[in-house]
Amino acid sequence: MLILTTGGTIDKIYFDAKSEYEIGEPTITHIFQEVGATLPHEIISLMRKDSLEINDEDRALIRKNCVECQASQILITHGTDTMCETAAALQDIQGKTIVLTGALAPARFKITDAVFNVGTAIGAAQSKPPGVYIAMNGQIFEAGTVRKNREAGKFERI
User: Fold this and answer.
1) Residues 6+ apart with CB under 8 A from 50
2) What is the tens place of the pLDDT at every residue in 26-63?
3) Taking the domains of the chain in order of start, what are their residue ranges?
4) How many Å apart are CA 4 and CA 83, to the nearest integer?
5) What is the DSSP letter of 65?
6) DSSP 93
7) Are 12 and 22 in contact (CB under 8 A)?
8) Topology of the domain comprising 2-157
9) Helix and strand tally (H, E) in the chain?
10) Which are the contacts of 122, defined by CB distance < 8 A and separation ≥ 6?
11) What global pTM score does this model have?
């Protein structure tokens, strides 16, 4: 499995001296270690951006990595605010199962949805047919059928 990291809340860390959050190193490696995951995988860190900063050029880079890799199962960690837009940009890629996930609270927090979402995404990448999906809140949504409800703090079907 190929894992592409792009940043987002899942990778945010708090800098007390600055009283702000910044995107740090990808947390996926730590998540795998903590849960004892033995799934063969490769991790490529493409960028460390808040998803509101991800633009069409960044989406083209994500797409290029998905298209050119040998893996048929791809997990993308991504910020939640523009995850749906990135999923839409990947929808016509053939022969690969691509699952985007992220977190509403940083993975480094004691209370976070990150580990649960990553686990759901890994299961989806291994079991769903080729296509593009979003794994959030214990659900797997096909790209183009989901939106983030910011007020409710969850993803929901359109």
Assistant:
1) 7, 8, 9, 23, 79, 81
2) 999 999 999 999 999 999 999 999 999 999 999 999 99
3) 2-157
4) 13
5) H
6) -
7) yes
8) Rossmann fold (3.40.50)
9) 4, 10
10) 1, 37, 39, 75, 99
11) 0.95
Copy the structure tokens of residue 87. Answer: 């999923």
Q: Which H helix or E strand runs over 118?
A: helix 114-127
Report residue 24 as tokens: 């740090």
Predicted confidence band of residue 20 (pLDDT cuts 50, 70, 90): confident
**Alpha carbon separation from 45 to 3, 130, 145, 148 (Å, rounded):** 8, 23, 27, 24
Q: Within 13 Å, how many C-alpha atoms sit on residue 115's CB side? A: 13
Both tokens assigned to 100: 């985007």
Q: Which two tokens stand for residue 146?
A: 């989901």
Which pLDDT tens digit goes with each residue over 110-157?
899 999 999 999 999 999 999 999 999 999 999 999 999 999 999 999
Token digits of residue 78: 């991504």
What is the spatial distance between Cα 113 and Cα 97, in angstroms, rounded to a whole number? 22
Q: Which residue has the tokens 């976070």?
A: 112
